[in-house]
Amino acid sequence: MMGNCNIEFITSFPWDIVKKAHTLGLMNPQIPAKYGGAELSSLETALVVESLAYGCSAIQLCIMGPSLAVAPVLLAGNEEQKKKYLGMLAAEPLIAAYCVTEPGAGSDVAAIKTKAEKKGDSYVINGPKAWITGGGYATWFFVLARTETDPKTPAGQAFTAFVVDGDTPGISRGKKELNMGQRCSDTRTITFEDVVVPKENVLGAPGAGFKVAMGAFDTTRPGVAAGAVGLAWRALDEASKYALERKTFGVPISQHQGVSFLLADMAINLELARLVTYRAAVDVDNKERSSYYASIAKCFAADTANITAANAVQILGGNGFNSEYPVEKLMRDAKIYQIYEGTSQIQRVVISRHLLQKVATTGTAG
Length: 366
Fold this sequence. Notes:
By secondary structure, this protein is α+β, with helices and mostly antiparallel strands. It folds into three domains: 15-91, Orthogonal Bundle (Butyryl-Coa Dehydrogenase, subunit A, domain 1), CATH 1.10.540.10; 96-210, Butyryl-CoA Dehydrogenase, subunit A, domain 2; 212-362, Up-down Bundle (Butyryl-CoA Dehydrogenase, subunit A, domain 3). It has eleven helices and ten strands. The longest helix has 37 residues, at 209-245. The relative contact order is 0.12.
C-alpha cells in the first residue's frame, strides 16, 4: 500500500513513480500474457487500483490511466493491432490516451464533431478532443471520429474507432490543465489537423466505433470505482485516527456520538461501495454484460468518495481545511470521480434504463 503522496504542485509528470510501477507489473495489468502483460483479472486489477488510490488517486491515475485506451483495443482490435499496441505498453512504461470527449461533447457522445474522411487507403482526421488524460505523453491514442456526414445517421453507425500513433503529423497537444484535484495527472486538449491514419488502424468495423467506445466502459468503470473506494478508505482512516487522538471536553472526539455515528456511516458506505465494485469486476471476469453493475459501482463509489472525504474534513474541523493535513486534498481529488468516465447523472441514466428493461422483461428487479 502506498503512503502519502503529496506532489500537489509539481507540474511535471511523475515518471519516476510510473517507471517503478511498470517494473513491478502494475501498469496495464490486464494486458494478456501473450502480448507481454501480467494478465490480471478485473477483480485483481481493482485491488491494485484501490491500493494505489489509497496512497494518492492522482498517482494512481498516472499509472492506470492508459487502461481506458487499452480496453477498446482488447475489445475490438485484431491480432496485429493487439500485438503492436498492447505489446509496446507491456514492454515499456509508455502512456496511451482515450480521445472521445470534445469541448462540446462530453456525456452526449453522439454530439462528437471530430471527423474522419476516407481518402484512398487512409482516413484524414480533423477536430479537437478535450480533457484527455495522459494526452501530453501518449505514445498512441484511441480516437472516436464521425465518418458519416448525415446528422440523422444513428450513433451506432455514424462513428469509427481508430488507433492513432502519437508521432503522426498534425497532432498538437495543448497546455497541461491545472485542475481542482488530482493535479499531477496530465490532462490536455489534443487537436487533430489533417492527421492521416491508415485503414489498418481502424478498430473493429467502420461505423461501429460508438459500440467499441461505449463497450470499453463496461470493463473500465469497475476500475474507476475501485479508485474511488481507495480514496474513501484513506479518508475514513485519516478521520478515524484523528478522532481517536483529538480531545474535546476531556475525551477523544470519537467518544462523542455525533462523530462516532458519522464514522459508522462512512464505514457502511465504504464497505458497500467495495462490495458492489468487486461484484462488477467479477461480472467482467465472467464475461457477463456488466453495464448495470459497472454503472452502479462507479456511481455509488464516486458518491461515497465525495461524502466520505467531505465528512473527514468536517471531523478534522479547522485542521481538515488546512493543507498540512491530507483530507482537504482527498476532498478535491474525490470530485472528479463523479465526472470522468461518465458523470454520476449518466450512470443513473444507464442504471434506470437497464432496471426498467429488466423489470419489463422478467417482472422483477432482483
